Structure formats: structure tokens, C-alpha cells
Amino acid sequence: MAEPILKVENLKKYxxxxxxxxxxxxxxxxxxxxxxxxxxxxxFKQQVFALxxxxxxGKSTTGKLIVKLLEPTDGKIYLEGQDVTExxxxxxxLAYRRKVQMIFQDPFSSMNPxxxxxxxxxxxxxxxxxxxxxxxxxxLIYKALEMVKIVPPEDYVGRNPHMLSGGQRQRxxxxxxxxxxxxxxxxxxxVSMLDVSIRAEVLELMKELKEKMxxxxxxxxxxxxxxxxxxDWMAVMxxxxxxxxxxxxxxxxxxxxxxxxALLAAVPEPKPERRNIxxxxxxxxxxxxxxxxxxxxxxxxxxxxxxxxLCDVKQPQLIEYEHNHWAECHLVGKY
Amino acid sequence: MAKPVLExxxxxxxYFTTRNVVRAVDDVSFELKKGEVLGLxxxxxxGKSSLGFTLMGMPTPPGKIVSGSIKIEGRxxxxxxxxxxxxxxxxxxxxxxxxxxxxALNPVYTVGYQMIEPLxxxxxxxxxxxxxxxxxxxELVGLDPEIVYRYPHELSGGMKQRVIIATALLMEPxxxxxxxxxxxxxxxxxxxxxxxxxxxxxxxxxxxIFITHDLSILAEISDRIAIMYAGKIVEIGDSEKVYYEPAHxxxxxxxxxxxxxxxxxERLEFIPGQPPNxxxxxxxxxxxxxxxxxxxxxxxxxxxxxxxxxxxxxxxxxx
Lengths: 335, 319
Ligand SMILES: Nc1ncnc2c1ncn2[C@@H]1O[C@H](COP(=O)(O)OP(=O)(O)OP(=O)(O)O)[C@@H](O)[C@H]1O
Ligand SMILES: Nc1ncnc2c1ncn2[C@@H]1O[C@H](COP(=O)(O)OP(=O)(O)O)[C@@H](O)[C@H]1O
Ligand code: SF4
Ligand code: SF4
Ligand SMILES: [Mg+2]
Ligand SMILES: [Mg+2]
What we know:
B: alpha/beta; 4-stranded antiparallel sheet; binds adenosine-5'-diphosphate
């Protein structure tokens, strides 16, 4: 098999919690948020790898570690074989950022409101010294806007971000990521804030660019249905761990982990004939804090299949149960 | 057939800003039957919340009801003075779960205080009576009644939303408007809240308007569905009819834009362009700049809602 574009190995990110004066005096132990707690995965060229899970499970932190907005506590990230943790100097970082771009959830807050769309797109070109003359840069900017179907570009370049619709703004954000011709894009909930009618348009566009430009994506989302539509692979995260991983369709149609099953059962489906049926939700309570991780299987307090003496003491490992299909649960196939 | 608890006729509510007039609710008519959930869907900015606030008799400034009628259990509320609305209508007859309300709970007061303050103020209840009632409704929504003594930051998102729902039910209103009650929640909590609403509907016979932009969530709970576009209802009818035989091109496109969990969709449909500016909406059918079937008449004349099937109406010149 080909080499992966991105390889993540036992990646961890802990955020220390600020301690009060008294706690420090008492020498109370430093408490930490276990945002990402030892995850590994690989992404191959021109594939879309979806990271799904409830809020707070560590999806965005993983994305930020990959684009180097954060430094890991432990673990490795390799991009095209290069150890990303070794990227340190300003020049190295600049070169890295050119290859790896991020699209954020809120297209509005990720743009300077006083910038014109032209400036929004020119900024990365100036930072990376691409396009020697103004005319060259202008050509690149117009091309990028055409690619995301903001046409004709001359009608839009003079506007400020608030003069665009949500969908247009998100397409400009994609154009800004694409203008540097990256190999890898981290798209963090890129369509969550958009209306359905526009959501489909942005997803279609991202799909098309994957084919045309050969981009590889990490697609972060809490929405299983768009993940099925857009992604080739899927990893389900819970409290900083990957609990299930495999081809998106396989994970959705044949989930192995109790948490994945619960997530899928909770997805609303447009079937009005079932409106009076109370849905069975095979899960208890809500996500606990990422500070006090439960012992054993961290999902056990919410798992309806948890076995005393096993699940609450022993941490399960991510195991390949079927070809290309992993799960982290003691009782796969037995619950 | 049961008499409707809510009858809305030709309702118009415009925002009179210093620069222009935003026609957020523009000639809306519908009925809500007793014990029924009417789902109201539409893109962001189409006027869903504006309609909700108007039904409560409290359009947000600079909004004003321009014309039309709102009857709750036969009683006209358009034109009633504010003190009557406050004393006799709002919260008692019609209540609302506001969009984002769970994040607007005041952190310095206990949950109980925030729930009962209006009871003491509106219904002249004494404090013990009010606390009793708050506890009864907290229990009904699946919470520990002792929560009245807790502060908002001690509750999870799902618990806070349950508190908001209990608060909307406190005065036993005939109509409840739920504006995006599950939007900010994670999928599991969202499903738990939808289950709760289904249970309340069954146990209390709640008549409810459920507002959301998410058509999948709407299908989970609604008996009938109204699709709103640019300040107008463009289609309304039985949920099954609207989902399986959508009549309006906008509804058809919206449904085709939803990715399905267990189906492989080759290409999702989308609607080119964007919803119109309500300060200057297109002439004729407001959907015409985005409609693939647009005809000359669409650009000139406003289509009215007409019956396409039993209890199924749509506003389109094709029909
Ligand atoms: N106080 C106000 N003054 C002026 N215009 C307003 C005001 N409140 C809302 N609007 C406008 O009225 C229209 C309808 O807004 P409304 O909040 O009802 O939309 P909505 O359908 O609830 O949208 P969402 O799904 O985003 O909640 C929009 O164009 C909005 O900008
Ligand atoms: N800069 C930070 N400092 C402290 N805690 C953080 C920080 N960023 C994220 N967290 C915490 O890490 C966990 C994972 O967060 P995040 O990666 O944003 O989750 P997701 O994107 O899946 O919603 C959460 O508990 C969150 O509160
Ligand atoms: S290991 Fe035990 S608690 Fe964890 S998911 Fe599997 S059955 Fe549930
Ligand atoms: S009235 Fe005309 S423009 Fe409007 S939805 Fe029908 S066909 Fe399309
Ligand atoms: Mg996030
Ligand atoms: Mg709203």
C-alpha cells in the first residue's frame, strides 16, 4: 500500500488547569484536561478522513495539533514522512503552513471584518511571498474565487465579509485555504453553521476540489450523515480517544462499539411516520468532564453493556476486529 | 373536528428600522389544532423567530404588527394593550421556549428563583405555592425537584434545556412555541430532549409550534409541517404529505439537500443563490430568482396558498 500523507502516532494533548493559590500551597496535584489522550491514525492521498464525536471529545484539538496551532504533550505527527514535531524555525513553520491549511467552523470570526475579500485572499500570498507583482497576485485571487464559484470575482473582491451570505463567506474561507495549493486541509465543522440548502453546496465544492486538486482532508464534524456523504474513512472519538475506526459506510452500517451505536441511534432521520415513537437511546447520561477520566473503559459510566470488574478497571485497546475496522471495547461481538 | 387553539390570519409584522422596512412576517395564515405539533421550518433569516415573537404579542423592536389576526382559543390578541397581554395572555395562554434561552439563564440566581419570579408576579401566588409548582414541572421533565436550589452553572446543557421547558409549561398554557429547542445540543442530548417533548405531547396533550431549520428533527415530532420562505408560508400540510409528496419547488429542493445516514447519495442537491433580503424582496414569487421552474407569471404575481390535496397547501404557480 502507498505511504500515507498524514500519520498520527499516540498523539496526546493535555491542558493544565489553573490552580488556586491555596491548592498550590497545599501542593495539590496539578489537574489536567485530557483533550487528546493517545490517538493514532493514517490518512491516504485524496481521501477524506472524518473525525466525529460529541463536543469536547477532542476533535478540534486534534486538528489544531496537525496544523501546529498547538504543540502536542506527547506523540508524533508525520506529513509525507516528515516528522512535524521537528518543524521549529520560522522558515520551517512557514513552509509547513503552506502545505497544511485549516478551515474553521465560523467563517465570520475567522476573517478580519475590515478586510475586503481581496485582502482576505492576498494576505496568505504576501505572507508566503507568492506572486511577485500585484498583477500576478490578482490573477491568483481571481482564479481562487472562480474555483469556489464566487463569480464574477470582480463583483465580490471589494466587499467586506459581512456583505456576503454565510455560504459565500465559507466558500471564501475555502478559497483562502486553497490559494496556497495545500496538500492537506483540516476542515473543522466547515458546514455546521450553514443552512442545509447551502451546506450541500459547500460539501459538493469540497468534494470537487478533492478530485481536481488532489487535496486530502481531515473532516471534523459532529454530523454522521454529512460524514457518510463526504468521507471515505471515519474515526469516532470519545473523551480524547478513538473508540472506533474504519471505512465511513462500514462504521455507520455495521458499528462495533456501543458508543458509535448510541450516536447513530440518536441521529434524527426525516421519517415522519415514526413521529410518535419514543426512540430507544442505548446510552446513559451525558459526557463527563475531560478532567476526571473514568478508570478502565472511559465510556463505562454511560455504557449499558458495561461489565463490573472488567470495564471499570481495565482499559480496552483499539483492535482490528474486521479487515480495516477497529474498535476499543472489551465486549465487541459479545454484548 | 376539534376547534383550533390558535388561528392566525393574514398576519404581517414588519421591522421599521431607520434605514428600511424588513418584512419578516408577510401575510401568514395557519391554524394549530388542539394536541397537535406544527413544525415550522425554513432557512436562517426567513422569519421563524419573528413569527414566534409576534404570536406571543411581543415583536422585538422596531417590529410592529401591521395587520392581521391572532386568535388564541377564539380570543383576538392583536390590538390588546400591553398590560392585558402581560396579565392574561403571555405565559398563561401562550408561552415560548426562546432560541438560545438555556444560555441566557442568569448565573447569580438559583434555578428556582428564575422559574417562580413570574409566577409570583403574574399569578399572585405565594412563594411556597410557586416553589411547589416549579418542582412539579421539574419532575415532569425528568429532573430532580431539588434543582430549584441549584445555580445554572451546576447544570449540564441538557439539564438547562429541561429547566427552560419546565418554565414554559409552568402556567399551563394552551399553546407552546419551541424555537430551536435542540439546536445547540449534542446529538445524544438532542435525541433525549426530543423524546421528552414527545412524551409531554402525549401526556399533557400539548399543542405546540416547533421551530427549527433542521428538517430531520422536524420529522421526528411534527404532525403537520409549515415551510417558510422569505417571510411567507409556501407549503403546509400533513408531515407525511410534505415529506413524501412535497408540492413546492423550494420544499422539494430542501428535502433533496439532506444527506441520509443509511443511504448512499451520489450528489446532493443544493439551491443556488441565497435567500432574499427581506427589506427588498423580489416581486411576485419570492423564490423565483432561485427556482429552476420560474415562469413569467412568477416574476409578476404573488402565488397564494392553494389546496393541492386534502389538508395540504402550497403557494406556487405550477400547481
Ligand atoms: N429587531 C430586528 N430589527 C430588524 N430586523 C430584524 C430584527 N430581528 C430580526 N430581523 C430580521 O428579520 C428577518 C427574520 O429574522 P428571524 O430572526 O425571524 O429569522 P429566523 O427564521 O428565526 O432565523 P434563524 O433560523 O437564523 O433563527 C431577518 O432578515 C432578520 O435580519
Ligand atoms: N486551550 C484550551 N485550554 C484548556 N482546555 C481546552 C483548550 N482547548 C480545548 N480544551 C478542552 O479540551 C477538550 C477537547 O476540546 P475540543 O478539542 O475543542 O473538542 P471538540 O472539538 O471535539 O468539541 C474539552 O474538554 C475542552 O474544554
Ligand atoms: S469496554 Fe465495556 S464499558 Fe467500554 S464500551 Fe465496551 S462494553 Fe461498554
Ligand atoms: S411560483 Fe414560479 S418561481 Fe415560485 S416556486 Fe412556483 S414555479 Fe417557482
Ligand atoms: Mg470543535
Ligand atoms: Mg430564529
